[in-house]
Specification:
With 114 residues, the chain is mainly beta. It has one helix at 34-41; strands at residues 5-7, 10-12, 15-20, 25-29, 52-57, 66-74, 77-82, 87-91, 105-112. It has one domain. 7% of the residues lie in helices and 45% in strands. It is globular.
């Protein structure tokens, strides 16, 4: 199993979404405050609404800029807390397409697409 994953979120119909055909996802939306966290994460990335690269892992890795900490399960998804932004956000059950169970921590690096 991979330890680093890469998706390329973009704006569609005013929402942050991503596609990942490898796991059967198309226009999978970020909602419930994760979309607000994405807005904060990409603040310094030009034209991020047209797409940016998000690298994420359950293990810390060099260059990871953001950390989410697991809080609780709800409605098949999981709530995570960002100490950096002092807020919680909900990740839907699609999280389990990448991890066998909800990780206690998720590390993220956001960067421009090449």
């Amino acid at each position: 199993m991979n330890s680093l994953f890469v998706i390329a979120p973009y704006k569609y119909e005013g929402m942050w979404v991503f596609d990942d055909p490898a796991v059967g996802l198309s226009r999978e939306p970020f909602i419930a405050e994760i979309d607000t966290m994405v807005d904060k994460i990409i603040a310094g990335i030009p034209n991020a609404d047209k797409g940016f690269r998000a690298i994420f892992s359950a293990a810390q890795f060099p260059g990871a800029d953001f950390k989410l900490e697991w809080c609780r399960e709800e409605s098949g998804g999981n709530w995570y807390y960002s100490d950096q932004f002092k807020m919680e956000g909900w990740l839907c059950p699609a999280l389990l397409k990448y991890f066998p169970s909800a990780p206690l921590e998720i590390y993220v690096k956001a960067e421009p697409q090449s």
